[in-house]
């Protein structure tokens, strides 16, 4: 079975749809339910609590049984994780802004969601509310929902990803801080996180999996395994000069991948991606101040920009 990637392009008043034949998949079974087979979402957020104290929160959502409300079955989803604090200012360190803390499901309570056709719905304020609608095509606008308040997010490309034994649509988004919406999964920000928010806390979907197997964005260890990492064992990347002026150079031993520059409030002010062990960040439009450089799979670095 082949699948198709459709891309919407605009040139002046003209609009085009490009059809691209992609890699064939064989042996695919019928699509599974979105909430079947023990789905798990691993997410990371980086937020000011408040600045200059930055909290890096790495957590997992997982299903935990069912409940019935007004004759309808809802799936319980709970969250547990670990939050680490970083002081982004000269000493002394502010109160409560040091160390790390594990937390369990009682910290954030229980979410109730269910699948209806190609929708995910959430029980909120004693009402059945839309969480995601995956009935989308090229040029469509995302509907307003529990975690989407923007009425101008549009679909500019559609392709497919393999999750378990089924193909799931993946929608590339325009006018959104989240790049993708993945059928049955959520966005590249996570499951319950804002689809797009100007005050971006750096939400990132690290992993989506079923049981002990991760499927998105890549196949690997179980999604709850991310909580077992130890920052002291993460590979480091050299960053300089510090203080930096017009450009910051990054150098490591492995391809760097996704790179983010966060300001003192935890907002992502610049994103890039490198397939090489070296990269640079253009700081010409970045105001003076203290920033954090995050390179996926590497230790975070604090840098000072001074023009």
Give a topology summary.
Blueprint lengths: L3 E8 L2 E8 L17 E10 L4 E17 L2 E16 L12 E4 L7 E6 L2 E6 L2 E7 L20 E10 L2 E9 L5 E3 L3 E2 L16 E7 L2 E4 L21 E3 L6 E5 L5 E6 L5 E7 L3 E5 L6 E7 L5 E5 L2
Antiparallel strand pairs: 1-2, 1-10, 3-4, 3-14, 4-5, 5-6, 5-7, 7-8, 8-9, 10-11, 11-12, 12-13, 14-15, 16-17, 17-20, 18-19, 18-21, 21-22
Describe what this molecule looks like in 3D.
The chain contains no helices and 22 strands. The chain has 307 residues and is mainly beta. It has two domains: 39-228, no CATH class; 231-305, Sandwich (Immunoglobulin-like), CATH 2.60.40.10. It is globular. The model is unreliable at 11-31 and 228-234 (pLDDT under 50).
Largest sheet: 9 strands, antiparallel
Contiguous helical run count = 0
Q: How many angstroms separate the termini?
A: 55 Å
What integer is the average pLDDT?
82
State the total count of DSSP E strands.
22
**Residue ranges: pLDDT <50 for 5 or more in a row?**
11-31, 228-234
Helix vs. strand class: mainly beta
Number of domains: 2
Write down the oligomeric state.
single chain
Give a nutshell description of this structure.
The chain is mainly beta and 307 residues long.
List its salient traits.
6-stranded antiparallel beta sheet; 0% helix; mainly beta; Immunoglobulin-like; 307 residues; 2 domains
